Amino acid sequence: MPQIVSPLQYKQYSEILNCPPATEAEHKLQVALQESGQHEKETKRQMIGLQPASVLQIQYCNQAHGQLAAQEEKAGRNKGTRLVGDGLPHMLTGDVFMAQVITHENAMEAEAREKEMRAKRRAEHSEELAHWKREEIEWKERNKVTRANFEAQKLEWEAE
């Protein structure tokens, strides 16, 4: 978490700096104090300039973190069908591994049943759709005949 930079606060050491130095050492200390104050001001300005960039970087990192988490979750859902695929040795007769094998086989059977059901539903839907289209074509033909009869009767009526 970035720390918020406080606004510039100008520390005035006017009493110390306005006093005439009594010795050369005091003069050097006053010069050092002035330089230190200038250095602090410049550092503060640089930190204030860096703060917006830091905020933008944090927002970008949060967004990228969310996208990466979603991508990893999606990849976890599409896990492969291999039971031993990590390249590490496994004890193939252990109770834990046998339980994983049974769970894996049950999951594969359930997935196969779901696939068959989807194919069956897809076939039923396509049959229903074909039946509906045939009925629609017949309905349109009946409407054409009815409309033609109506037009013929209308012409006869107008002729009378």
User: What's the alpha carbon Rg, rounded to whole Å?
Assistant: 42 Å
Order of helical and strand elements? HHH
* Strand residues, percent: under 5%
What structural class do the secondary elements suggest? mainly alpha
Largest sheet entry? none
Poorly predicted residue ranges: none
Count of DSSP E strands?
0
Average pLDDT, rounded to a whole number, is 85
Helix content: over 70%
| Outline | elongated
Distance between the termini: 94 Å
Total helical segments: 3
Please tell me about this protein's structure.
The structure is a single chain. This protein has 160 residues and is mainly α. The chain has helices at residues 14-18, 24-77, 95-159. The model has no long low-confidence stretch (mean pLDDT 85).
Please describe the structure with a list of short key phrases separated by commas or semicolons:
160 residues, mainly alpha, 0% strand
Question: Helix and strand layout, with pairings?
Answer:
Blueprint: H1 14-18, H2 24-77, H3 95-159
